[in-house]
Amino acid sequence: MSAEASPPSSPTPFNVAFIGLGVMGYPMAGHLARAGHAVTVYNRTAARSERWCAEHRGTSAKTPAQAARGAQVVFTCVGNDDDLRAVVLGDDGAFAAMAADTVLVDHTTASAHIAHQLHAKARSLGLHFVDAPVSGGQAGAEKGQLTVMCGGDLHPFERVAPVIRAYARAVTRIGPSGAGQLAKMVNQLCIAGLLQGLAEGIEFGQRSHLDMELVLKVISQGAAQSWQMENRGGTMVQDKFDFGFAVDWMRKDLGLCLDEARRIGCTLPLAALVDQFYAEVQAMGGGRWDTSSLIRRLRRPRS
Prior knowledge:
Layout: E1 4-5, E2 15-19, H1 25-34, E3 38-42, H2 46-55, E4 58-60, H3 64-68, E5 73-76, H4 81-88, E6 103-106, H5 112-124, E7 128-131, E8 134-135, H6 137-143, E9 146-151, H7 154-164, E10 168-175, H8 179-207, H9 212-219, H10 227-237, H11 247-264, H12 269-283, H13 294-298
Parallel strand pairs: 2-3, 2-5, 3-4, 5-6, 6-7, 9-10
Antiparallel strand pairs: 1-10, 8-9
């Protein structure tokens, strides 16, 4: 697979649909509107669509199909494989209303299997499908600084990449259908391992009575430096987790990784262990805490 970087952002306004206005989709759709595109939105909870339209110049649709009708590019950003099928397939799904040669770009973190399935279905209908999961979290979405990993055919990717740049700092085609989702799995596997190591390091330092804010400042200038250390190390020291990427979402993502690993015969012992640790955090009531809350299980009183 060879990576294909996107062309620069296009000044040409498009008619676009955005389906799914969660913590990521809401600001992403907003960036599209601010870039001058005509945006029609759909969300399962209609009140959120209405709120979005009150903040941006756009139109609210009652079904995914209604949102997709007349759109030159359709974006989806929902919760999981089943949610994606619900908004794309069926009489009220986006595919039912999309004109021939239109591209659907899916930003959901989902399985490679659903990407292959929807890519094949799109081609049978004369449409295009690009799986395009993102990294950067809510803050990246709000700042328009997401990293987007794409899988799919080259020409549809080249057509939509300039539009995606409204909310992305990097848009890259990793390879054919499903490659974007597989790359996102690699991303999540690396983050999980980093966070566990960071949690253990901070806990060790605090129990050794070190000034961990100072220690992190020092070691972040060396080989231990990472995005997680710079952006989550301080809040881990302060025991603050009421923000960011939720533990519930990370467990969903690690489940996708572990399922895919079983399918291809790959062993992921660290991911399996960290997934168990996140289950313990959920049992502590931390399902909505940021993923850096792994350290909370290390801070529990010892019996």
